[in-house]
Structures are given as C-alpha cells and as structure tokens.
Amino acid sequence: KSKLVRCVCCFCSCCSWLLSEQFTMSLGSTLSTLGFGILALMTLGLTAVFQHGLRPCRIVAGFDGQLTEDDCVNMFAAAKTGAKDEALASSFVALVSIIIRIEAACIFGLGISSLCLLGHAYEDRKSGAIVCAIISIMCSTVDFAHAIPFGPVNPLMTPDMAEGSWGLAVVWAVVAVCLLASVSLTPKGGKNKKKAA
Fold it and tell me: Which of 15, 35, 62, 107 has its Cα between 20 and 30 A from that of 115?
C-alpha cells in the first residue's frame, strides 16, 4: 500500500508541476525562443546566400553555379524579345524583378524582426509571435502547394523545384507550430499584469 500511495503522490506531483504556471511559462519561453531562432537563422541565411534584394538575378545562387547572373539577364531579355508586345513584356519583366526584390526585403526584415523579438522578455513577444506565425503559415502553405501540389496550380513549376519546396515547407511549419504554441502558453496580461500585482 505504501508503494502505491507513493506512486500516486508522485504522479499527482508530476501532473501538478506539468499544469503549473512555472512549467507552462518555461515551455512557452523555450518554444518562442526556438521558433524565433529558427526563423532568424533561415531568413537571414537565405538573405546571405541569395542577396537578391540587391540584384534580382542573384537568385541564380540557388542553382549551384550552373547559371550566372548574365544567364538570368539574358533569359529575361529573351522573354521580352520573343513576346508579341515587347514594351508590355519589358514592363512585366521589370515587375517580376521588383517583386523579387520586395520578397527579399520582406525575408530580411522578418529575420531582423525575429532577432529583435528574441531580445524581449517571453511575455512581451506575443504580438510578434502571432504576426510571424501567420507569415510562416502562409509561406508553408505556398511551399506545400508546390511540393504536393494542391490549390491553385503554379503552371511554371518544375519537378525539381517542387521537390526542393519540401524542406522549406517543413521549416516554415515548425516555426509556425512553435510560435503558435508559445502564444497559447503565454500568460494573459504579460509583464503588465505582474507589475500591477
């Protein structure tokens, strides 16, 4: 009987610790740090490798030296030359290059924001975690849509690029899960509640 009582007491102690605010705070803080850390590493890593915020044709870095920036420029130029309306095609190519640069700036900004949020106390990261989780869900959905595919089909997608989307889709999903879980574990009121008490 004494062993059974000790086991039950031990089990109850473990359960109460798992349900305690201290444990949820610790778990939430760990998940938040993990989510923002992975996000910062991934986005700043992509920015460092591609540097396509500076020059759109730097995206050729993803082809392991098989393409050069000049090749990229020539491919875009060829697309303009073969079009029915060259002026319209030129504007379209310019728009694509602008979108590439804006995407690069957003990715870089996401990385810097993640680093800044890591400098804040866990309780104060909640709003940032929600925003970054939503962005991560959207990016993961796009990458999964290329890899599986589902939803609106990208007619320009190739099997090689679709296969490469798996890795990023999973990383985006992990970031989203970590950040959403950390948000759900964040105590209501955050630091302001503690100061008021």
Answer: 62
What lies within 8 Å, CB to CB, of 110 at 6+ separation is 39, 43, 132, 135
Three-state SS for the chain is CHHHHHHHHHHHHHHHHHCCHHHHHHHHHHHHHHHHHHHHHHHHHHHHHHCCCCCHHHHHHHHCCCCCHHHHHHHHHHHHHCCCCHHHHHHHHHHHHHHHHHHHHHHHHHHHHHHHHHCCCHHHHHHHHHHHHHHHHHHHHHHHHHHCCCCCCCCCCCHHHHHHHHHHHHHHHHHHHHHHHHHHHCCCCHHHHHHHC
Identity at 189, one-letter amino acid code? G
Q: How crowded is the C-beta side of 195, counted as CA atoms within 13 Å?
A: 5
Report which of residues 188 and 86 the model is more confident about. 86
pLDDT value at 193 more than 60: no
pLDDT tens track for 116-154: 999 999 989 999 999 999 999 999 999 999 888 777 778
Q: Identify the burial level of 172 via C-beta atoms within 10 angstroms of its C-beta, where 0-12 means exposed, 13-18 middle and 19 or more buried.
A: buried
Q: Give the CA angle between residues 114, 60, 81 to the nearest 5°.
A: 125
Structure tokens at 29: 């803080």
Contact 93, 76 (CB under 8 A): yes
Rounded distance between C-alpha atoms, residue 181 and residue 35, angstroms: 10
